[in-house]
Amino acid sequence: MEILIAVLIGVLFSVATYLLLTKSLLRVVLGTVLLSHGAHLLILTMGGLGLGSAPLLGEEASKYSDPLPQALILTAIVISFGMTALLLVLTYRTYKAHQTDDLDQLRGRLDE
Amino acid sequence: MSFLHIAIIAPFLFALIIPFFYKKISSVHTGWFVLVLPTVLFVYLLTFIPTIADGEVVTHLLSWVPSLGINFNIHLDGLALLFALLITGIGVLVVLYSVFYLDKDKESLHNFYFYLMMFMGAMLGVVLSGNLMVLYVFWELTSLSSALLIGYWYERKKSRYGALKSMLITVSGGFAMLAGFSLLYVMTGTFTITEIIAQVDVVTSSSLFIPTMLLVLFGAFTKSAQFPFHIWLPDAMEAPTPVSAYLHSATMVKAGIYLVARLSPVFSGSSEWFWLVSGFGLFTLLWGSFNAVRQTDLKSILAYSTISQLGMIMSMLGVGSAAAFYGYKAGFTAATVAAVFHLINHSTFKGSLFMVAGIVDHETGTRDIRKLGGLMTFMPITFTISIIGAFSMAGVYPFNGFLSKEMFLESMLHATDITSFNMQSLGVLFPVIAWVASVFTFVYSMILVFKTFRGNYQPEELEKKPHEAPVGMLIPPIILASLVVLFGFFPNILSHTIIEPAVKAIYPVSLTGVEHFDIHIKAWHGFNFPPLYMTISIIAVGVLMYLTLTKWQKIYAFLRLHKKDPINYFYDGIVNRIAPIAKKITKVPETGLLRDYLAYMYVFFIVLVGYTLFHFGGFAIDTNNVAEIPIYAWVLVAIIALSAILVPFITNRVIAIIATSFVGFLVALLFVMFRAPDLALTQLLVETVTTALFLLCFYHLPELRKEKTKPVFKWTNLFISIGVGALVTTMALSSLALGNKKPFESIADYFLKNSHDLGGGDNVVNVILVDFRGMDTMFEILVLGIAGLGIVSLIKLKMNGKEDL
Amino acid sequence: MKNNISVHTITRIAVFIILSFAVFLLFAGHNNPGGGFIGALMTASAIVLLYISFDLQTIKKVLSFYFPYLIGTGLLIAMGTGISSMFFGYPFLTQFFDHAHIPILGNVELTTALVFDLGVYIVVVGVTLLIITTIAEDDS
């Protein structure tokens, strides 16, 4: 299972990197979204999934999943939500101001 | 933290509230508020005179980076006190003068006084710190504030040129000095000045002695405008006149002198030090005075005059260093005494002359001596001040400049007695150069006064009708001129209170064994005193040359000196050549395209992490201990991977967004599979809100275009992204294998065990968030709040339609 | 869609259910899945639903808060629980809990962590709604 997820993480990172390297601003933002998915899965998987019961003590199970990466990722999800929103609005404003989302055109003149 | 520490920091703190004064209390000139601080500091420092005159040294220790030997130590001895008094004392006068010089409605005073206070704090830091590294930090701060003040009228091209020039020259010198200090550390293992002096033997016997000396002197010479680094000082005259009087004649340019004096105990006694300091000093003296005569701008004359006077002080320190070689009782210390005395005198007469130049500029609208003339009747007080200042500078009795000039001439004559350092053959040059330079000094001093205040009055050349300056503007130069007269008649009020402690700081008792320097300055030595005849001949020849000025002034054109100082050609040449090359080099990596920057980072990431991973044998795959893969997991993972891979190929904006959200929702399913209900819930909700946001933002905007790019671009991108993916997978697998190989105790157990009893909750994830790691969560919501406000300002602030810029 | 009665009717009911569930999630968070973040995001999605089926004016009428104040209030609450523990000589952000017997509700666990979570909830709701309404306003 872990190996399968590791491969999936690789795929997510590859696609995210590819999107980040394109010249369209929207694709760059989508790239960051995929990148954070990849990173969350990476944190969750790196220590081994060690599947037990959900970390709710009310379950009274003999073995629980590791709660710490979950707490970390929960924080990370919310932060990446804030970041995505900020990037999104930045893109949106750039778009409105310059009428283009092509990074090649946005970089300005070469002689500057 | 002592009061002296606070005295250094106070100007910086005060600088912070200056904009407040400027904005809120605009009816009163900001300078009046600023005036308080230097006055308080000056009075506070005055209280140290008795202590320091008794030969004590005030030290305070404050650890900063003790592991590197960098500590903010205060070391207040005679030399430091002399400079600190100059900085604060002249500071008071200059601030008072600036109140009348700078118009409160037209000038951005908050900037001016901010920089000025920054400079004052930095300069106090330079002279009071007992640690070379701290000294260096403040030294660079003085360079920075000086450049900011030169560029105060930044809309003028010449101001910007002057600011850049002073910055480049002094900062490169400062950098060399830093290297020199580091070498001193290498030799002695300490940055504390007193400890370095205690290890003089180690330094002098080291092979690094000469390079260290050269580097330190490079710093001192650039700061003190010694030839050939003097070219920044005339251009620094673009600064407002109070600044020129303060930084570029009385205090900052003397920092180099301070450094030479401060490190004299370390380097004195070697022939290299003797020749470098006195040689550069003498040549600068000659070059400065010779070039001052050809200037037509009052402040340019004063600038070259300052260069020349700095050279003079430097040369005296150089000759004085012979004392270390001959033993301190042989009388060479007289040169050092003269240097310290002239340093004080120069600040008084040059300060007053700069202020006079400022008054003339202020009241007539020009500083060009070809347009000025006959102002004596309009400004009698200013004229009197300038007479006192200029005659003191020329070395005429009864002003203080006469006394120090005679002491200078005496010490130069005395230098011929030196029998080592090749002085037997070259020593005669010392008094000769001193004499020639003094003649030119006399000539330009006369030009300064008589071309401005006597001669023909040319009202048609002046912008304004001249009249006497306001009283407030006259008070500071009058105070300085009175000091010129006072020290001229009673020089000995300084000798035991200020000069002797300063000389003792340059030649510490621990090194010399001399407890007491007998300093008695007098004007009359009897007829059997060669400097007297030198002075008389200087005045005689000087008067003759001033009267025949037009006859021999062609020599400057003949020497091709009439346009600008020839050293400037080097500077301009270098700067004009280097700047385009630097631009070109910067252009190569900095293309302005986000993709390129990201590509560099990714390539570095792959290379560095990949190399480390494989080089140290971190790579491993371990299939033990992995969880089973149910069928639905295969399906889920395959769908996630497929939809992710599809995203780059979609050209429809909305579909691309939805495909990305789809991945997010499926990841939430993965979280369910991994027994993380909180995560799954959060992910689902975040994905919903994000998708709504995406669609809100992009619904109305045009379609994604199919990217028209070269195949090379695409293939490189593909290559890099596959590399990143492969590396991350490898990392994930290796860390799994590591976890299996060395099963370390997970801190999860602690949380699982204590969640109920300590946190009072059964949902361990939530307990971690709000209790165990509550601080993280608090900062997280803070970040979220900032992001929210950032978004609002991005949208609401529209920069008056100038958002394209 | 702006005048679609069936959508409006369903939304009214759905939003009510979602909002109650959000509050439940907030309070259940300490012992079951849920908590401040989740509750807040649930609340926000309810309001997004409102926006989609009605329009911005309606939302502004219903929620006449100034959202930046909401963010500030939430942060103050969160920080306040942290600081209040310092008054009793405990380190910053020490949380406490106790069980109390309240009529009708029975044995209830009271924790300061819940107050902290409430702060988190308010901040996250504030930020999300601030973002959504600002963008929506600019768009229209």
Question: What key attributes describe this structure?
Answer:
heterotrimer; A: 112 residues; mainly alpha; Helix Hairpins; 4 helices; 69% helix; elongated; B: 805 residues; two-stranded antiparallel ribbon; 37 helices
Structure summarized in a few sentences:
The complex is a heterotrimer of chains A (112), B (805) and C (140). Chain A has 112 residues and is mainly alpha-helical.
Task: Write up what this structure looks like.
The complex is a heterotrimer of chains A (112), B (805) and C (140). Chain A has 112 residues and is mainly α. Chain A has four helices and no strands. Chain A has one domain: Helix Hairpins (Orthogonal Bundle). In chain A, 69% of the residues lie in helices and 0% in strands. In chain A, α1 runs antiparallel to α2 and α2 (25-46) packs antiparallel against α3. The termini of chain A are far apart. The mean pLDDT of chain A is 85. Chain B is mostly helical. Chain B has three domains: 1-264, no CATH class; 268-566; 750-805, no CATH class. Chain B is 72% helix and 1% strand. The model of chain B has no long low-confidence stretch (mean pLDDT 86). Chain C is mainly α. Chain C has one domain (5-139). Chain C has helices at 5-28, 36-53, 56-62, 67-87, 112-139, and strands spanning 97-102, 106-111. The mean pLDDT of chain C is 82. Classes of the chains: A mainly alpha (112), B mainly alpha (805), C mainly alpha (140). Chains A and B meet through α1, α2 and α3 of A and α30, α31, α32, α33 and α34 of B.
Q: In terms of topology, how is this protein built?
A:
The complex is a heterotrimer of chains A (112), B (805) and C (140).
Chain A: H1 2-20, H2 25-46, H3 67-98, H4 103-106
Helix pairs in contact in A: 1-2, 2-3
Chain B: H1 3-24, H2 30-34, H3 36-46, H4 49-53, E1 58-60, E2 63-65, E3 70-71, E4 74-76, H5 78-101, H6 109-128, H7 132-150, H8 157-188, H9 193-198, H10 200-205, H11 209-223, H12 232-235, H13 241-250, H14 255-267, H15 271-292, H16 298-320, H17 322-326, H18 333-364, H19 380-394, H20 400-415, H21 423-426, H22 429-453, H23 471-489, H24 492-506, H25 509-512, H26 530-547, H27 549-552, H28 554-558, H29 567-587, H30 594-615, H31 631-646, H32 653-673, H33 677-698, H34 711-741, H35 748-759, H36 764-772, H37 774-796
Antiparallel strand pairs in B: 1-4, 2-3
Chain C: H1 5-28, H2 36-53, H3 56-62, H4 67-87, E1 97-102, E2 106-111, H5 112-139
Antiparallel strand pairs in C: 1-2
Helix pairs in contact in C: 1-2, 2-5, 4-5
